[in-house]
Amino acid sequence: MILESSQSGKKELVYHSGQYSWRFDIQLPPQLPPTINESHRYPRARYYLRFVIDKPWYKRNKNETLYLTVFPRVNLLNNPQCLMSSIFGNHNRKDVTLKGNINKLGYVPGEMITGTLEIENPRKILLKQIFLSLIQYYQIECNAGKETVIQTILPTIVNTKEEYIMEKFSLAIPLTYLAPSYEFHSGFKHTAKVHVNYFLEFDVKAEGMFTNFGVSIPITLATEYNTNPNEHQLNHATNLLPNSISYYPEAIMHDKYPSSNF
């Protein structure tokens, strides 16, 4: 996009000393994969605007880069299965059984994940610790990675041999920029694949060899939980790069940009 150019017959623009501004509008496609990872980390999906003042050949061009935080709107109300409770369970070779339930499978940043945990330990094996974590898994083309969003140790289940334990648990999702759960298979010059998924994971550390085990529950992280499509409930971006801003494209469907599966 050219904001201003020299008039016909003139080789260059001439401005006197002062401040100048130009208004511009760029309509982003409604379906874009979310920003993933900061600019210095790989793999990554990032967006930026680059402004260039094209000077004569004997002078160095002036340019500035402005990073954008982009993520699609994902509304939990469009995924009613995410609002249902879910049960989970697993066991190890020492007959330690972990089972429980969570109140729902879909959340937005700032919400609390809550549920009930039940442990059966008939052989009174020493349970050292249970880690509870929210993990982000992402894949950009053939490159994959994961990030621990938040992790805690269940405080009441530490170095215990209790035969039966029933506890409530909770984990607060940080109110910060988190890419929503998303699957993108599209592109412009070529088709790109970007996946973002979240899992709630219990990691049980028990005494003995090959006795550790875990449970992984897929959850959906959305950007809004709203019945009014004209009102946004978007995560507030924090800890972004100093020269970054946020942008939230509208969920307008178009044949050129097919919708993604959530």
UniProtKB/TrEMBL annotation:
Residues annotated as signal peptide: none
Query: Could you tell me which residue ranges the Arrestin C-terminal-like domain spans?
Result: 92-226
Biological process per Gene Ontology, one example term: protein transport
Family annotation (InterPro entries): Arrestin-like_C (IPR014752), Arrestin-like_N (IPR011021), Arrestin_C-like (IPR011022), Arrestin_domain-protein (IPR050357), Ig_E-set (IPR014756)
Pfam families referenced in this protein's UniProt entry, alphabetically:
Arrestin_C, Arrestin_N
Listed under GO cellular component are:
cytoplasm
SUPFAM superfamilies in the record: E set domains
Family to which the UniProt record says this protein belongs: Belongs to the arrestin family.
The name on file for this protein is: Arrestin C-terminal-like domain-containing protein
Q: What organism, scientifically named, is this protein from?
A: Rotaria sordida
